[in-house]
Design a protein that fits this description.
Blueprint (H helix, E strand, L loop, with lengths): L1 H23 L29 H17 L5 H9 L2 E10 L12 H7 L1 E6 L2 E4 L2 E4 L3 E6 L5 E6 L2 E6 L2 E6 L2 E6 L3 H13 L3 E4 L11 H6 L14 E6 L3 H4 L1 H15 L3 E6 L5 H8 L9 E5 L1 H12 L4 H4 L4 E5 L5 H6 L5 H10 L8 E5 L4 E5 L7 H9 L3 H4 L3 H10 L6 E6 L3 H6 L8 E6 L1
Parallel strand pairs: 5-10, 11-12, 11-13, 13-14
Antiparallel strand pairs: 1-2, 1-9, 2-3, 3-4, 5-6, 6-9, 7-8, 15-16, 17-18
Helix pairs in contact: 8-13, 9-10, 14-16
Length: about 450
């Protein structure tokens, strides 16, 4: 009797443990004698085990329903929606995958319908199929009213191998999309224009030399007009000596095509001597460059333009003039600090997309001379200042290495520097030293 009681107790305990394990979804096949490992998704477990009895199947189905309620799933689509912004417009388009840029408009409707895919434009990207194009990489669109296709011009990042290293660089890529009707194409173009993308209006292919494109454009109803932003008008100040003399080539081959594609109206002025950029910024008429001044070169030309603007009589108005930076010199620390980019293509793309970043400006005053010099990054006195001044002599010969050469030469004839520093005490120091007279503290040092 004792053995039977112990056996019944053991069986009851075993059944209780099996039921509790089944509720947790951790023991679906214990009745068959097979040991299995815990699973996260019970409905996806391996089906190679032995089949269970009918009673067990009914129990496991109920337990599976309870387990599904307790499951926590992460939908990757929802995560991408947050990362790619909210949906602005959607429809069906066909991507022209041919490499040649000159295509005829004549295409059969059957081929167009076969190639049609679902395309979605969000606040941050254009998505079709498994492809995605960020709006920050889009420069402009090209479109002709009355046609079914439009072209998106972009500079996306691409990985390119350089020996043992893999670097990401931007290169131009055009995407030509076909819509089912010209009205749909116009709606897509206007949606891009609402997202601050510039639209290049192309001449109609059926327009003859005698018949202007304006007359053909007037044949379309007013709702076919494109809501496009006005082209920016800027002044470009270029230092041809920056970057070991390669700044002009960088601007003409890499930067200028981006600005022209975005519809910029450029007035390019090349500096001829030191201080030329400062004179230009101090005397330029702001009505000729209402959208700002773009500096092509290193940190030096930006400093000259800044000092020229702040030396004007209308200083408050000059402080509102945007300054664009294209890194093409040996020192490009400011553009890296402000924009977080180093290459001229990314800097030009940031200027095209717009947006302003406020920076701090400090002033250094020479008391005896009465001159004030403004800066944005750092100011030097003593040895480093002399090295920078001497390095200008070796700019053409050594390029970026001129700083090491000038520092090596200056080290052998190191002079003594005397200086006096005046500073305003903090509030804590004023409380501690309230009995002391004077608002300034003086420090003298000799080296």
């Amino acid at each position: 009797m004792e053995k039977s009681q112990t056996i019944s107790k053991n069986t009851s305990l075993r059944q209780a443990t099996q039921q509790s394990l089944r509720r947790l979804g951790l023991c679906p096949q214990i009745t068959t004698g097979q040991q299995t490992s815990p699973v996260i998704f019970p409905e996806k477990r391996n089906s190679r085990g032995k089949p269970a009895t009918r009673g067990d199947i009914s129990v496991t189905n109920d337990d599976l329903k309870k387990a599904k309620v307790e499951e926590h799933r992460i939908d990757i689509g929802d995560e991408q929606c947050d990362l790619l912004g909210y949906e602005v417009f959607s429809g069906k388009l066909s991507l022209d995958k041919r490499k040649s840029s000159k295509h005829s408009e004549v295409q059969t409707s059957e081929n167009m319908n076969l190639d049609m895919v679902d395309v979605k434009l969000t606040s941050k990207a254009l998505i079709w199929g498994s492809e995605m194009l960020r709006l920050d990489d889009v420069v402009s669109l090209s479109y002709c009213v009355g046609l079914r296709h439009f072209t998106v011009h972009a500079y996306p990042l691409r990985k390119s191998s350089c020996g043992l290293f893999v670097k990401s660089r931007r290169s131009r890529k055009d995407f030509r999309f076909f819509a089912s009707t010209s009205e749909d194409a116009l709606q897509w173009v206007n949606t891009f224009a609402d997202k601050q993308c510039y639209v290049n209006s192309l001449p109609h292919p059926m327009a003859s030399k005698k018949q202007s494109s304006d007359s053909i454009f007037n044949e379309f109803p007013p709702e076919s007009y494109i809501r496009c932003k006005s082209p920016p008008k800027v002044l470009v100040i270029l230092n041809p000596r920056s970057g070991h003399g390669r700044s002009s080539k960088v601007f003409q081959e890499l930067v200028e095509p981006i600005f022209k594609l975005a519809g910029f109206e450029l007035e390019v002025v090349k500096t001829t001597s030191a201080g030329h950029a400062r004179k230009l910024a101090a005397s330029v008429d702001f009505s000729t460059c209402p959208d700002g001044i773009i500096c092509v070169g290193g940190d030096g030309i930006i400093n000259e333009v800044l000092n020229g603007l702040l030396s004007r009589d209308n200083q408050r108005e000059a402080m509102t003039v945007p300054i664009g930076i294209i890194p093409a010199g040996s020192d490009n620390s400011l553009v890296w600090t402000v924009l977080g980019v180093r290459d001229p293509v990314s800097a030009a793309l940031a200027i095209v997309k717009g947006g302003l970043t406020a920076i701090d400006v400090f002033a250094v005053e020479w008391i005896h001379a009465g001159a004030i010099h403004f800066g944005t990054t750092v100011t030097y006195f003593g040895f480093v200042s002399d090295v920078l001044e001497l390095s200008e002599k070796y700019q053409k010969r050594f390029g970026p290495l001129r700083y090491f050469v000038a520092g090596f030469l200056k080290f052998f004839c190191l002079p003594k520097y005397s200086y006096e520093v005046e500073y305003l005490p903090s509030q804590r120091e004023e409380r501690k030293n309230f009995s002391r007279s004077g608002n300034y503290r003086h420090v003298r040092a000799l080296h």
